[in-house]
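Job type: complex structure
Entries:
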Amino acid sequence: MKKHRVVITGIGVVASNGIGVNNFLKALKEGKSGIKKWDELGALNVRCQIGGVPDLSTINLHDHLPRLFAEKMTNKGIIYACLSGLEAWKDAGLEPNEDAVDYSSGLIMGAGDLSFDSWINREFPAYPIDRGESRRLGSRTISEGMNSGAAAYLNNLLGLGSRVQSNSSACITGSEAVLLGYEYLQSGRADRMICGSTEGDGRYIWAGFDAMRVLCSDSNDRPTFGSRPMSSTSTGFVPSGGSGSLVLETLESAQQRGAKIYAEILGGHTNSGGQRGTGTMTAPNSEAVVKCIETALMDSSIDPYEIDLISGHLTSTKGDPIEVKNWVKALGRKGEDFPFINSPKSMIGHSIAGAGSIELVACVLQLANQFIHPSLNTEEIHPEILSEIFGGKIPQACLEQEVDTIIKANFGFGDLNCAIVLRKFNP
Amino acid sequence: MELVMNQESVKTDLLEIIKPYLPEDVQLSDVSEEKHLINDLKINSAHIVDIVLDIEDKFDIMIDDDAIGEMNTVRDSIDVVLNKAAA
């Protein structure tokens, strides 16, 4: 069966260091951190009191969303997804369907757990159910709390009629959504799929990670230094919220309607280490990570030497040196021979389920604009990383640089891996 | 006289509450007292419970299920508020 080529024709993003593609692009180039201190976390005795929260006060929601969404929607994860999704759809030169249903387009918008979102704050400290006032929950507790809520509300705006789905796979959710959409289009079952993921923010999401002691707790007084992937002093990740969306389209469809093409998805793979070997609920099985990357390259029919840039998962934990070793092994490249590697999390923090899609938008922007964004706070690279790769492969400042092929990977709780290969479009 | 003023002020507050739930193509100027919330103003029936909660917060009253069932038109809703506030 002939497989369809799949290209990216639209992008949208809400990130802690910039809302909207133009602001995000500028922030990536400047190496702008979106991490700030949040005093409310200190008052609650949370160890990590820093995080990345997209600043909605910098935009007028009414300019972007219908009245009901702008005024009544309280779930940040859903607001972010609707903003990034609408931006991507319009960026692709498409309009939301007024009354008709577009059966040739679908949607995959993943989420971590929308019911953890800060929207439950509104009845703090006692939840209405426990006060015997469940009637106070109103009509949107289910639709905003269900994991498919972001997909459902976004499609309320778009009116798409092909597959509409919401995946949930911890920190690989975003890249997995794109991989799922890619495979669906490859098989010819739709013309285009808008794919992405979202994560809200606030104490209900972050405190659980804090209790696991996986968050950065040593930088409450210097927030932008907290997220320092690949550093010798990394102590934990810095949580953040946000959403990325990408419009994926068969090459035929994109060319037929004369759409601008940002990049092509060459291939990808997702697998699991089965929580066996070095793999656990929270740590990846390195054997499976290597296999995932190797299979993604094979699926893309490219040689490891064609990779110009690795956009790592690299969360600013003790796992970073292990991740770099896995890349070295999977690509068979080390030292000076290793490609460039950077971590968007050094700027935006770890947007959990939102991470993969936001980071893929960053990859598309680097391909489309030919640059490599800096990886912040890498002045002191971990010695175990330096024994594997040349330190100059980790950019401390933005590099104006030819970039043809990027591999993006994410690794998630449950021992899940996902890798995707993107290339500058070459007809 | 006082009752008329009350009715007017309740109406003003009620319209403010209803506004965000109106579909994009329905304007506040389309809303008159005889309009049915769901059939005429095309408010999603699921959102009636949200409007009820907003009304309860605004007027510090409790609207029971029977009263919710009576809130068909804008005028019905104003009457429910006035009745509950007087009770």
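Summary: The longest helix of chain B spans residues 2-18. The mean pLDDT of chain B is 91.
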